[in-house]
Specification:
Order of helices and strands: HHHEHEHEHEHEHEEEHE
Bound molecules: NADP nicotinamide-adenine-dinucleotide phosphate
Strand content: 5-15%
Helix content: 40-55%
Shape: globular
CATH architecture: 3-Layer(aba) Sandwich
Oligomer: single chain
Strand order of the largest sheet: 3-2-1-4-5-6-9
Number of strands: 9
Length: 304
Amino acid sequence: MHLTAAYRCSGFARAAPVWAAVRSRSLAVAAAADGSPPGGGSSDAGSGTRVALVQGSSRGLGLEFVRQLVERPNTRVVATCRSPAAAEQLQALRLQHAGRLDIVQLDSTDESSIARAAEQVAALTQHLDLLINATGILHDSSMAPETALARVTMDSLLKCFQVNAAGHILVAKHFAPLLINAAKLNGATDERPAVLANLSARVGSIGDNRLGGWHSYRASKSACNQLTKCAALEFERRKQKVAAIVLHPGTVDTDLSKPFQKNVPPEKLFSRERAVRQLLAIVDRTSMRENGRFFDWKGQEVEW
Ligand SMILES: NC(=O)c1ccc[n+]([C@@H]2O[C@H](COP(=O)([O-])OP(=O)(O)OC[C@H]3O[C@@H](n4cnc5c(N)ncnc54)[C@H](OP(=O)(O)O)[C@@H]3O)[C@@H](O)[C@H]2O)c1
């Protein structure tokens, strides 16, 4: 069912039976079978085309990552989100970049959805050169960041941990084989490894916590940091050319920060365009030396 939904959203709806029959790994071949413009290469494996996946791309920073990555030459983007049909701006981008941008349904709070999405992406590409986990939750209709211990609830703790920590690492778990393949199939090296970038937040730093508050969000970001570090050490121990890093984007004008922007000086409130440009500059210069480290938007290391 989800598979069908994803085909529909990815623009491969009409090619779905062909796809199922041949299990082609090539975006371009599938698109051509569909009669739509080919993506620009028969197969990404070994072609030098870089493939980036952005998890949580319906809006905010995730959407902007997709927008900037898809503009890059020789790059294909897979954008995932939990409700592709509702992601209108993402759908518009797909139409604009036919054959270079695919949308796959993935709900990072549901491991079976992550596993299904990983299977679908593996049918599109044999390697990933970049995976950005951009989902995040700070507040919703039933939850606001806590201002006191007395306000901490099981619901807010679990919700934050699920979206901000568990989701990121389970996505890493299911997509790791494709990141690892980047060395074998697309020339990833210690100097230029595949990159797993998990969006976290400076407030997840325990050493930097001088104000308290936002208990669930902070703790879930600390958990994200620890889980990323574990993955990084494993990549290193196994000599896999995948660098796992944690990024703090700064305060960015998105739905997540909207209710808290009042006291942020204008020069410290970044546009999405600026924030993503800054983060991609860090990603672009990531080598295995940066594996397992936490960087802010300036590229400065943040203490754990
Ligand atoms: N904006 C900032 O100032 C700031 C600062 C520090 C760190 N960050 C971090 O940067 C990342 C991106 O944040 P953003 O500002 O772009 O946030 P945003 O605009 O609020 O977007 C949040 C994204 O997460 C997804 N999401 C939210 N709740 C979810 C849930 N319950 N289950 C699954 N997916 C869910 C959303 O998908 P739907 O559209 O389907 O809801 C959306 O794609 C987050 O990890 C955030 O913590 C942001």
